[in-house]
Amino acid sequence: MPDAEFTNNNLPEIPEYFSVNEKKYIQRYREYIATHKLKEPDTPFLKLMKIKLDSITQEQIDTLRKDILDYIEKNKADLKISERFVNELTLTPYLKGFLARQHKNPVEKVVSAMEYLSERCDGITDENFPKEFLEFGVNIASGFDVYGNIVYYAFARRNFTPRKLFDSTEKYMAYLIYQLVRISMFTNGFFTMLIDFSGAGVANVDFQALRLLITVLNDNAPACLNRVICHNVHWVLRPAFKVGYALLPHEVGDMMNASNGKDIYKFISEDQLPKGVEGGKNEEIILGRPNKNANSFLDVCDKVNLPAEEATKLIEQFRKALKKNKLELMSYE
């Protein structure tokens, strides 16, 4: 996968290694930026990140790539890494993003990300992605914010899934997040995350899922998240959020935003906001969208090393949550 494919100046043909849905999202991005006047980055964090990215030289990137490949060769007996992720995470945009995060040991950080993705995502495709997970509506991606960034939506209000069963779903969440990172790296390199707390209180916030989102992005992704919007946070949770913000590093805290009701429109217009979010009119879910031809967990459990008995229990949990949370709106074709 030559680096030339990751430049947008000449609108190159979208490479074949992207899935059908990923290609569709990239095409939507091109249409959006061609027809909308985008706002300029408006926070110190984004301005600082741009400075960091612009300051990274090709020599630094080439050195990091060589050091990573040398490290993998030296330790190949102890590493379980798919060639796919070695190829993808050593492309220039990824390495530049990892360098921008200024890790003390970027080589080990990138290799660790390769191992994580190889363990959880290798072999997963849109074709063998279980429909029950998509219908659960844990997270989706569609539309763009007013700055031209892809928008990723996580829904905080959920019924808890037993720890054992949640572990079985982690690979699918990681796969969706990695798709988003791949698209971001091919387009403008950034995305916005909207966490919708509508209907969520102390007793029914799915902290397991939110913790996983943070872990995947913080530990295994390059610098591609530019804004986090916590939408419709219940007043009971607001004091905890204020304390949490105060404990975050300054540059991370600057990334956080809160919105309630129509305040969200200053970040994402209503025509780009998914129909699943209050006030949203966008009915097109591109990633995380159920497909009528998708397989069941029972059909794919052998491929993902998930025992049939555990897959059956997991499906039951999803169906109970779907019914209780009235998430049928996530299932439209």
List keywords for this structure.
disordered C terminus, globular, 2 domains, alpha/beta, Phosphatidylinositol Transfer Protein Sec14p, 333 residues
Tell me briefly what this model is.
47% of the residues lie in helices and 9% in strands. The protein has 333 residues and is an alpha/beta fold.
Structure, explained:
The protein is globular and about 50 Å long. Helix 3 packs across helix 6 (106-121). It has 333 residues and is α/β, with parallel strands linked by helices. Mean pLDDT is 75; it is low at 1-8 and 325-333. It is built from 13 helices and five strands. The longest helix has 24 residues, at 163-186. It has a five-stranded mixed β-sheet, covered by helices on one side. It has helices at residues 20-35, 44-55, 58-74, 83-89, 92-100, 106-121, 131-136, 163-186, 207-220, 238-247, 250-253, 297-300, 308-325, and strands at 139-144, 150-155, 191-196, 225-231, 256-259. It folds into two domains: 19-121, no CATH class; 131-331, CRAL-TRIO lipid binding domain (Phosphatidylinositol Transfer Protein Sec14p, 3-Layer(aba) Sandwich). The chain starts with 19 loop residues before the first helix and ends in an 8-residue tail after the last helix.
Task: Produce the secondary structure layout.
Layout: H1 20-35, H2 44-55, H3 58-74, H4 83-89, H5 92-100, H6 106-121, H7 131-136, E1 139-144, E2 150-155, H8 163-186, E3 191-196, H9 207-220, E4 225-231, H10 238-247, H11 250-253, E5 256-259, H12 297-300, H13 308-325
Parallel strand pairs: 2-3, 3-4, 4-5
Antiparallel strand pairs: 1-2
Helix pairs in contact: 1-8, 3-5, 3-6, 4-6, 6-8, 8-9
